[in-house]
Amino acid sequence: MPPTYQLKIIIPAGGVGARMGLAYPKQLLPFGKSTVLAHTVDLFRPHLTIVAVPPDHRRLFEAALPRDTLVVDGGATRFDSVRLAFAAFGTIFAPIKDDDLVVIHDAARPFFDPSWLGPACDLAFEKGAVVFASRATDTVKLVGEDGVIVKTLDRDKIYLAQTPQIFKAGLLREAYAKVHLNERPTDEAALMEQLGIPVQIFASGPTNKKVTTAEDLPLLESGSLRIGHGYDVHRFDASRPLYLGGIAIPESPGLLGHSDADVLLHALMDALLGAAGLGDIGQWFPDSDPKLKGIRSTLLLNRVMAALAEHGYGLENADMTVMAQVPKLAPHIAKMRAALAARLGVAENRINIKATTTEGLGFVGRKEGIAAQAVVLLTRRHGS
Ligand code: MG
Question: Across the strands, what pairs with 7?
Fold first, then answer.
């Protein structure tokens, strides 16, 4: 018969992010559509959860959490916060049954994969105490106070403790009753160790990272990557001005099209829409729409970028190639690139524009028109 137990979740969110150099607690950093803390709390739905928050910032934290979240004042240390939250379960509800499991998880560890919870809890039900930990990948040195290596530790036996830390409630209650509070353990695993209670490792991967220092901030910005490709061709029309890559090139004949016929921006927009799975510019801006007659493609690009932002996408980089026998594009590339980077809100080194002739071959070589290709990479924010 499968084990039957309930989970009680404790999320200590007491730290105020001193190591981040932030003006506000790191748990409240934006992440996906909400914050690191709200995202972490959400990982454990529908289990009963208590979040321990810094009393001085309680209102700020409550505002950042869904309204049905149970919040209690945390203590001076993480250890105290967990202890207070554990006690609060007994005060707010009936005392936790000895065989139920208490799951303690860092507020600043939002990348935890909830599908690990079931197997880890089954193990905790069997063993009593389980701690997520990742195997050391770097060689670990024991270093003396003088900065000199004392010895190299056996990496195969080194694990870095993470959370969740999962305990049978009866065991945790017993441990709290015995602990000397003048020597607070750093975490509940250390508490069990102090009392000689075996703690089992649950090997987790390196993805279960904690957001600790400013260097970790890019983790919150990273997300899934999406690639897109675009291709477009327009024929020359000497009666029109040439717009290419968003800029005017007055010395050249223009291109025929319903809009300003900026073939490079059209390829770019198709790549952007393609990467986001949003179709193509033909669907977005049909050439049967009289409102779009003669419109600058820069305005269409603005609309595409707004749509991407709405869907949680940001541009990593774009690489484009213009195929034209005429005009000579080399003198215009730098201006094109700078203007496009500014419009897209990215650094210039993320926008690359190349030009090539086709050595007199094909329609480009016969100077009948210009072709363009674009490849883009988008990042989709976590939780979007
Ligand atoms: Mg076109």
Answer: 101
Distance from the alpha carbon of residue 269 to the mean position of ligand 1, in angstroms:
10
Q: Tell me the per-residue pLDDT of 266-303, one tens digit each, with 9 for 90 and over.
A: 999 999 999 999 999 999 999 999 999 999 999 999 99
What φ, ψ does residue 173 adopt, rounded to 5°?
Answer: -60, -45
How much distance in Å is there from the Cα of 285 to the middle of ligand 1? 10
Question: Residue 306 C-alpha to ligand 1 middle, in angstroms?
Answer: 20
What does the alpha-carbon distance between residue 99 and residue 121 come to, in Å, rounded to a whole number? 11
Whether residue 276 contacts residue 228, with contact meaning beta carbons closer than 8 Å, is answered with: yes
Name residue, tokens 């363009």.
372
How many whole angstroms from 3 Cα to the centroid of ligand 1?
62
Question: How many C-beta atoms surround the C-beta of residue 218 within 10 A?
Answer: 8
Residue 259 Cα, ligand 1 centroid: separation in angstroms? 8
CA 132 – CA 45 distance, rounded (Å): 19
pTM of the full structure: 0.62
| Residue 159 CA to ligand 1 centre (angstroms) | 56
Residue-wise pLDDT for 36-45, tens only, equals: 899 999 999 9
The rounded radius of gyration (Å) of the Cα atoms in the chain is 29
